[in-house]
Amino acid sequence: MEKKLSNLTESALTDVAERLGEKLSAGDILILTGDLGAGKTTFTKGLGRALGIVQMIKSPTFMIVREYQGASLKLYHMDVYRIGDDPDSFDMEDYFDAGGVCVIEWGELLGADMPANYLSVKFDKNANDTRTLTLTAHGKRYETLLSAS
Questions:
Q1: Can you tell me the distance from the alpha carbon of 109 to that of 87, in angstroms, rounded to the nearest whole number?
Q2: CB of 149 closer than 8 Å to CB of 1
Q3: pTM, full prediction
Q4: Pairing of β 65-69 and β 74-79
Q5: Distance (Å, rounded) from C-alpha 29 to C-alpha 132?
Q6: What H or E segment, with its residue span, contains residue 101?
């Protein structure tokens, strides 16, 4: 199942993320893909707002993983760009089982190490400084999530 949202301004992008974030549960995994500056971290800020995170959300580029405590769930914001072809350099699966929400930027680089079930969010920059999002469900949980959004 796939859903496409076009011509999103930065504030609309955040609003879409916030509405989605209100439906997230422990163990949910989102894989964000798109060029630098496409809006991945901005989107994550909207998810964080929905989860009740008051701390400023920053790109995890040099940290690999940033953890944020929300009102009832933790957010694990990961960036796997710098791990190259060594996804075993940190215990990513431990975060999947930690009872929070995992957001993985550059997740397409995981290749065969991708989780079996997740929601893919692809960001495309448009000429008019807006974004197009393509959300693709991988697994029943994420089909349900997309249907409800």
A1: 9
A2: no
A3: 0.91
A4: antiparallel
A5: 20
A6: strand 101-105
